[in-house]
Amino acid sequence: MSAIALPGTRWQQRIESVLWRGRPPSLVALALAVAIAAFMAIPLVYVVYRGIDGGAETWSRLWDTRLPTLLRNTIELTVAVSICTAIVGGGLAWIVTRTDIPLRGLWSWLLAVPLVVPPYVGAFVYIAYLGPRGWLYDWTNGSLTFPEFYGFRGATLVLTLFTYPYVFLTTSAALRRFNPAFRDAAAVAGASGWRRFVTITIPLARPALVAGVMLAALYVLSDFGTVSLLRERTFTQEIYRQLTGRFDRSAASALSTVLIFMTMILLFSQTLLQGRARYYQDAGAAWRPAPPVRLGWWKAPALLAVMAVVTAALLIPIGTLIYWTIEGLRDDSTAAEIWGASSGGLWRYAWNSIWSAGLGATVAALLALIVAALRARHPGPASAVIEKVAQAGYALPGVIVALSVVFLLNNWLPLLYGTVFAVIMAYVLRFFPQAYQSTSTSYLQVSPAAEDAAKTMGRPPWRATLEVTVPLIMPGLLTGWALVFITALKELPATLLLRPAGFDTLPVRIWIQSSEGIFTLAAPAALVLIACSSVPMGFLIWRSRDQAAPF
Amino acid sequence: MNSSRIRWLGVLALILSAVLLGTACGGDDNDEPTREPDPVADPTAGADPEPDPTAGGTAEPLTGDLIIYSGRREPLFQPVVEAFEEATGIDVTVRYGSTAELGNALIEEADNPRADLFVGTDAATAEALRERGLFAPFDDPALATHDAAFRADDGTWVGISGRARVIMYNTELVSQDELPDSVFDLVDPRWDGQVAMPSTANSSLTAWVSSLRVLVGDDRTRELLEGLKDNGVAVLREHTDVRNAVGDGEFALGLVNHYYYQLEKEEGSPVGVIYPDQQPGEVGVLVNAAAASIVEGAPHMENAVAFMRFLLGAEAQRIFADANFEYPLAGGITQSRADVQRGAFVESDVDLVELGMMNDSTLDFLDEIGLE
Asked: Phi and psi for B160 in degrees, rounded to 5?
């Protein structure tokens, strides 16, 4: 680009020196990255624009009727789940990584696994137990019930049980790398055990704890299935209702704007909560594993807490799903329906889920690779802006992504509306940032020297990247792919709204059947879904053990 | 991870994505309507009903696909679809969802229709969609036995089964002598927190509110709904939730269509039914219809017409009546399984077309009241 001498060359160089530190990228690479960033950002911008454009009348009607309740419900639920996951996830992480509790290795696996159970599956399992006339009521002849399970309490319980692993994983990764030198120094200086915990362990774990809680909170804001099943009115549910109940998008857009605003506040507060302080722990020569804290008499209650959570978040849901599945298979007509006498059958739903999530993950990973390459090889304000814009959709709830895909396709590509393409596009839009973050982290760790060497051997730049750098960053790329795959596999609201006729995925079937209260049909689909996510999830958990921030 | 393993994983991932891409494209191709010219061929769509009666009489078998958007729940509708597939050999694909949700999809797809046939749970929504020009007319001998009160004049929507708007109750929680006999009684403090209803996003409910607005005026309707709200009415997602909750004894009373009561009773729950507002001067019971419409520019127009006829035939009507306790509207079939037959109760004197025209304003009306 700068090789061609044009009259404006001096200006051009000056502008380039502002935009890029070092060599500017090729025009093709730049155009690609800008296009990707624009693609990722347009939906968000468009929904906000439509929301604000919706008119004062829409806003005042919403404010008079729904907005206050929705705000209160959504904030209450998010705060409650954040606190609960911080206690459960953080506490368990400390017990499992820093104490002499028996079977540490086993617990650290079992406590991470509930991440493969989609919370809406957990919701319908717990409704069967704790609902107003659930099994608890039956077994105790009505003398024991969970008061007001539907609504805030049930939603808090279920969301905590199935999102605490975010906190558990991030915090235990941080605690595992804990350098005992600090604590030893404090001990030499005469600090008590409790004081050392408060002044050394907690501050060192704080960034990871906050990062994990933030993931849980973002999930709560975007959750649709759980709150719907548990009858808690939050933004996502109301947006869905407005989208499906009325023939007018203005209220849905307005509500989406508020929800996007809340998400941004949350992301911003993460920086505040993690604090300005920086702690550096070298894993260098001086590092050694910290000796575990002796629990003594506390061993029994600690073990009990760990077992209680494993039971509630893993054994009960999986066990119940297996029980329902067996019940269903033993009944001939139900079994016929499971295997697909009527519309498709379990394996087709599974196949639909797998290939659409797989394709979405692949596209997201490839796009992420392009933007990451630009950012790593051509640093500077321009690529920083492109990077930020490309991640604009981070943590965007599925209902909003669906709304924006509807807008986008109908205005520009109506031929693609109502095809599987719309669903896959929603997956890419919604989960691109996940693929990007892990890809770009790996990319930044690879020195450009090897690539340059390949170029001096006469390889064109794209081939040098493909042959030298891509193999080196493969773990990061695969992590990104697996993350997108798992989340897309269990995606519910966008799929529900965008799927064409005949394209039901496992989550859609789980949703339809559990809405009907036919658990014997919902359970096999849920089990297959869990099995499908287990393999990539195993890969992620295994990799996260030596990583600071797995997600 | 050592580098050779990484490379292997990389190769594997590449192969996997290539396979996925391949199948995806293949799958997409199959999903595309095989006969493309149809969306443009609107004139033929309009003219279709005319030549078709004769075409139906010839022995030429119908083949290919039919795409239906069904707001009717899967367990209630799939048996009819399967009977049709068996009778014709046409491959039917159904997208199930809520009536309004699929109505929205039709609006989005208006320039490029994906569906051939739309089946909704209430006539008013069908009328509201008709006004947006989404449906093709249907004028067919099959309408000979059809109850004309339950269709649009031009056949753009045709009622396929009738449903009455009733109150169901749990017999263990409410005794015979304290039963309310009007929906307006439900605002009584004695029912505080004991009444459940479906979300106002439910189109049957919207149509019912429209009918009240016609019959007693906006003020009294608002009074009723606000009274229900103040009385802590539980707004559940769907009718199925309401019937299950009343059947389980979570709530004493529920506002539902009559067959939800019948289905709950059939499952052995202790439930009863009230056909309310039967006294002279009272509003009566709204009888609404699940309605079917041929989509304007349907990709498989002939098959859509065939399915429409099938819906109005004796076999489908029998399924609606027997499996789902609904009131048949065509085919000479009568309801025999429901507790209360049509004719045995006073029906609201309203025009379903008028309710359809009110649909949008009723949604605003409900928004103002702030019922969820």
From this structure: -110, -15
Q: Where do the domains of chain B lie?
A: 38-162+289-335, 163-287+361-369
> Is the CB of A502 less than 8 angstroms away from the CB of B1?
no
How far is residue A140's CA from residue A144's CA, in Å, rounded to a whole number?
6
Please check whether residue B267 touches A, CB under 8 A.
no
Q: What is the reported pLDDT for B1?
A: 41
Length of chain B: 372
Contact A342 B78 (CB under 8 A): yes
Average pLDDT, chain A: 85
Between B10 and A338, the higher pLDDT residue: A338
What whole-number distance in Å separates Cα of residue A364 and Cα of residue B9? 18
What is the count of residue pairs from A and B with beta carbons less than 8 Å apart? 148
For residue A442, give every residue at least 6 positions away whose Cβ sits within 8 Å of its Cβ, in sequence order, or none.
A472, A473, A475, A476, A477
Sorting pLDDT into bands at 50, 70 and 90, what band is A285? low
Q: What is the mean pLDDT of residues A81-100?
A: 93
Cβ separation B363–A241 shorter than 8 A? no
Integer Cα distance of A467 and A459 in angstroms: 9
Give the closest of B6, B24, B114 to A355, CB-based: B24
CATH of domain B163-287+361-369: 3.40.190.10
* Yes or no: domain B38-162+289-335 corresponds to CATH 3.40.190.10: yes
**What's the mean pLDDT in A223-247?**
87
Higher pLDDT, A380 or A426: A426
- pLDDT tens figures, B306-328: 999 999 999 999 999 998 999 99
What percent of chain A is predicted at pLDDT more than 70?
93
> For A300-325, what is the mean pLDDT?
95
pTM to 2 decimal places: 0.82
Give the nearest chain B residue to A475 (CA atoms).
B6
Model confidence pLDDT, tens digit, residues B170-207: 999 999 999 999 999 999 999 999 999 998 878 889 99
Asked if A343's CB is within 8 angstroms of B13's CB, the reply is no
Q: Give how far B197 is from chain A: nearest CA, Å.
A: 13
Q: Which of A516, A125, A146 is CA-nearest to residue B241?
A: A516
Chain A: give the shortest CA distance to residue B297, in Å: 14
The answer to whether B38-162+289-335 and B163-287+361-369 have equal CATH topology is yes
- Helix, strand, or coil here: B257? strand
Model ipTM value: 0.76
Contact A305, A229 (CB under 8 A): no
Distance of alpha carbon A354 from alpha carbon B234, whole angstroms: 38
Residues on chain A touching B28 (C-beta within 8 angstroms): 419-421
Is B363–A132 a contact, with Cβ atoms under 8 angstroms apart?
no
> Chain A contact for B103, CB < 8 A?
yes
Average pLDDT over residues A351-375: 93
Which residue among B9, B78, B363 sits closest to A246, beta carbon to beta carbon? B363
Q: Are A501 and B103 inside 8 Å of each other by CB?
A: no
Query: How confident is the model at residue B278, as a pLDDT?
Result: 95
Of A500, A512, A518, the CB nearest to B114: A500
Q: What is the DSSP letter of B36?
A: T
**What span, in angstroms and rounded, lies between the C-alpha atoms of B98 and B71?**
5
Read off the pLDDT of residues A16-50 as tens digits, 9 standing for 90 and up.
777 777 777 878 888 889 999 988 888 788 888 88
For B69, the enclosing helix (H) or strand (E) is strand B65-70
A359:B68 CB<8 A = no
Q: How far is A290 from chain B (nearest CA, A)?
A: 25
